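Lay summary. Proteins are chains of building blocks that fold into shapes, and those shapes determine what they do. In this project we predict the shape from the chain. Here is one chain we studied, written as its sequence of building blocks.
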Amino acid sequence: MSEFWLISAPGDKENLQALEKMNTVTSKSNLSYNTKFMIPDFKVGTLDSLVGLSDELGKLDIFAESLIKRMAQSVVEVMEDAKGKVQENLLANGGLKEKMKCLKTDLTSFVTHFEWDMAKYPAKQPLVSVADTLAKQLAQIEMDLKSRTAAYNTLKTNLENLEKKCTGNLFTRTLSDIVSKEDFVLDSEYLITLLVIVPKPSYAQWQKTYESLSDMVVPRSTKLIAEDNEGGLFTVTLFRKVIDDFKTKAKENKFIVREFYYDEKEIKREREEMTRLLSDKKQQYGPLLRWLKVNFSEAFIAWIHIKALRVFVESVLRYGLPVNFQAVLLQPHKKSSTKRLREVLNSVFRHLDEVAAASILDASVEIPGLQLSNQDYFPYVYFHIDLGLLD
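And here is the predicted shape, written in a compact code that computers can read:
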């Protein structure tokens, strides 16, 4: 499963025994894979400042998760035809051991082997400063994401609109890639070549009747130049002064004159625009994908650091000073075992908060002074990590 539960309990003897009991039960029942989640000793500051920081970190957590999901979706959209390879581009850089910082790491391994990055987020700084560094980093990534993807998406939309013109039926699609100069009588004061869409079952009727649909139609001037599933595009040359009469008679016979005048400059411009857009998209693809890969990794790593900060702050607020708690990362083995796993945790740590433990079993019991809904509150500190970023 791509789901993790990040929990903490006090670090005294009784609760360390409770953690051991949890590990034993979850292992024997094959409920989850558990590992210690190492968090450095931060400067605590005042409890009042921690209360404010707890609220800010909650908002930052939501923002970070939203950002990496948007970045993952951007990778999907940019890769288009190679969507099967998206997951291998959503990686975290390093994080296992100091000597392996340069290696690409899958997200699950990064979380299960998490190590706080002391160089990027010094633990000796006040907690507020660490949180501020993370917030500024993510805000900058989001700003860059918006500008880079907006430019690419505008280009992609313009290209798609041009490509749409080259698809569809003969009534709607562009004809610049179908017709050629030789199909038309050009620069004539008296003659003009029209394009007529004829249904497939009516080809024979067209050949028999087009010369007599009006006066002054040039004999043997029709030629089939393109077809789709429904019909064909025929040329016909006639005198300019009978255009309206010819159109009316053609329509009566279910032959539709397509409004089109051959303009060599316009056709050349349209073809060059398509070539330019294709070239620009190709040029932007590589740099944008590289940027997304690098900054997805940065944002993801920042997000897990935010989770670690939240565990620290909530543990101090919940269990008090001096700082003494143990954080554990649980990875449920399967979705069907999560209910049983929750029951085990609530039973093992029930002594930490009898009211909260009871409320989990009875949703009608209110926890005095608690703002969270009952489903979000447990006797132990708990945070959820979901790596199903494309689900």
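What the prediction tells us: The beta strands are 3-10, 32-36, 92-93, 104-105, 191-199, 223-227, 231-239, 256-258, 325-332, 381-386.
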